[in-house]
Design goal:
Length: about 600
């Protein structure tokens, strides 16, 4: 079926028909043989056409000659055409044991296989919170989570119960509640069930997000160059009910209208795309032995690919998604053995009401960072983190950088500032945010602790040099250090010093970052601040080397570091410190510029 009308035109057409639904039902349900009335597209010899109408469901189609005049269904009601159909009978879509998409998925996402053990497999639809206590649950069909033999409290597995009878290695949740019609009983709205996430490392360490595997996002939606990505994508809440008031003053509501494009991701067929052809429809589902389970107010979807079913066994429990990545339904059953391929979904608002849940939009963590003027200090800001259905209540930062007590530095709050130990080192910064529903998200970004920017004015170096008439070296930090190394290698003593640096650099850096005793001495005696100050002097010819930073003399820093490196370092490092410590003390005590030190090295 080719959809030619715009979304606005379809919405207006649906509203016009929905406003007359009460009148149509009052007239039609009084007739013999009529079961229900829905709104959808007209069917002609197995093909749907873009004519929105009242679809009248009857017990059986009869020849006009066999129908009493008063029971004949009119061709139109108040200008709205009618179409006559029998109630479709479809099959549940629980999959066989030897299905596809049987990978273990951690973190958990929608669209993957789950199992209750003995009754085959279905699909994990999405995640929700129980209204009563906020508990995190997964949503699927009753016939997937409960089947015919399981009960509340029974285990649910992902991908399956693959181990011995006493093993719970793949157990992810336990059944909490479910609902579907009894065989031969009155109709119901849903075939739905929920299972509470129970494994700590699933709900906390892995941080579940309401994401569907391979769902994708529409780019340039509605444009000629529209594309659908193939990445895992977040669910963006629930589509609102389009509400129209009928002639009786009652609301007619639906999260979709006929002609809407929808898609799902199922355990067996993956992502498929379809078109809504009916809303508010009755459907019977085969329960075996000529028995059925009866449903009302269902959404029926025709596959957009005439040669490929929208859903087959194993896809049960998939959520039906609109173009804005909002949930509109829960896939339940399908006619997949013959064309046209049509599947049935519960209205998601019926599911939320019957299961007493809300689909949550977990927070999305994000932060920015800015290097401060001393190059080793960074300002972090998490104000870009958002929460779709509540508020963020906690921000937890992990700097990936041990403090002077040996513990990894952590902060709380929307913003924080941290000074790192050494320049040039990379750090993984982690932010975890948690919202008022108890759901969390985590993001990790890598930063590189910088050297003072060559030739920049952000730290005042160029301005200070201009005031004194000194020349600023404009090379990048790496080039400046390379130049310094070249100058050292120009003499035998310089080569010895460079070799010592190469030999012990990694060990010293490890001790500064990991050894508590060395770390405390380095931090308390202003080691990071001295490094920043000395790096600035490399950029300015003739700059004075700092003798004191924050009231700590450089000799005090050197003495403390020499002592702890001898005590905590390897025997070769301790021996090197004992051999060269006095010479280093004297050079820094008697000489005031880098140029003087280089000259001494070359001439001594």
């Amino acid at each position: 079926m080719k959809i030619t009308r715009s979304q606005a035109e379809r919405d207006a057409e649906f509203s016009n028909i929905a406003a007359r639904l009460a009148t149509a039902k009052s007239l039609l349900l009084s007739k013999k043989n009529v079961i229900d009335v829905a709104i959808g597209y007209k069917e002609r010899e197995g093909t749907y056409v873009e004519v929105m109408c009242f679809v009248v469901f009857v017990e059986e189609k009869k020849a006009m000659s066999d129908i009493a005049p008063e029971d004949i269904i009119p061709a139109e009601i108040e200008g709205i055409p009618t179409d006559v159909s029998t109630v479709p009978v479809e099959d549940e879509l629980c999959g066989p044991k030897d299905g596809v998409n049987t990978d273990i998925e951690r973190p958990l996402v929608g669209g993957v296989q789950i199992s209750n053990g003995p009754d085959g497999q279905g699909t994990l639809g999405c995640f929700a919170n129980m209204v009563e206590d906020g508990s995190l649950v997964l949503l699927s069909n009753h016939h997937v989570l409960y089947g015919d033999y399981k009960d509340t409290g029974d285990d649910i597995y992902q991908p399956d119960k693959t181990c011995c009878c006493c093993c719970t290695c793949d157990m992810i949740a336990r059944n909490v509640a479910g609902k579907r019609p009894t065989i031969g009983g009155p109709p119901e709205f849903v075939d739905a069930a929920i299972a509470k996430i129970t494994v700590d490392n699933i709900s906390e360490q892995v941080l579940i997000r309401n994401m569907v595997k391979g769902l994708g996002v529409y780019q340039n939606l509605g444009a000629a160059n529209e594309t659908l990505t193939n990445d895992d994508a977040l669910i963006k809440g629930v589509a609102p009910m389009t509400q129209t008031w009928d002639t009786e003053g009652d609301p007619v509501m639906s999260p979709v209208v006929p002609g809407n494009r929808v898609r799902k991701v199922g355990r067996t067929t993956g992502r498929t795309i379809g078109e809504v052809i009916l809303v508010g429809a009755p459907v019977d589902v085969n329960a075996g032995n000529d028995k059925v389970r009866k449903y009302v107010n269902q959404i029926r979807v025709k596959s957009a690919d005439a040669d490929k079913p929208f859903a087959i066994p194993g896809d049960s429990g998939s959520v039906l998604i609109d173009d804005q990545n909002r949930i509109v339904g829960l896939l339940m059953s399908s006619k997949f053995k013959e064309k046209p391929y049509i599947s049935t979904c519960n209205n998601i608002h019926d599911v939320l009401r019957e299961m007493k849940i809300r689909i949550f939009c977990p927070p999305t963590a994000d932060f920015t960072f800015a290097q401060q003027t001393d190059a080793l200090t960074f300002q972090f800001d998490a104000s870009g983190s958002v929460d779709g259905d509540g508020i963020i209540v906690t921000y937890a930062w992990d700097m990936g950088n041990p403090n002077e007590t040996g513990a990894v530095t952590t902060y709380s709050g929307v913003t924080c500032t941290h000074t790192f130990n050494t320049p040039g080192k990379k750090h993984q910064i982690t932010l975890k945010v948690t919202d008022n529903n108890g759901t969390s998200d985590r993001i990790v970004k890598e930063i590189t602790v910088g050297w003072p920017a060559g030739g920049g004015t952000d730290d005042g170096t160029a301005l200070a040099a201009a005031e004194t008439g000194q020349r600023v070296r404009t090379q990048a930090p790496a080039a400046l250090l390379s130049d310094l190394k070249t100058r050292l290698l120009a003499s035998e003593k310089g080569k010895t010093m460079a070799a010592l640096v190469e030999e012990f650099r990694d060990e010293i850096q490890l001790l500064v970052n990991k050894n508590r005793k060395v770390m405390v001495a380095w931090q308390r005696k202003q080691g990071p601040a001295f490094v920043a100050q000395y790096l600035r002097t490399i950029r300015i010819e003739g700059a004075q080397l700092p003798k004191e930073v924050n009231n700590v003399p450089v000799q005090q820093l050197l003495q403390h570091m020499a002592t702890v490196l001898e005590e905590e370092g390897s025997p070769p490092l301790a021996a090197a410190v004992r051999e060269h410590r006095l010479a280093i003390f004297n050079v820094l005590h008697h000489h005031n510029t880098l140029e003087e030190i280089i000259t001494v090295i070359h001439t001594s």
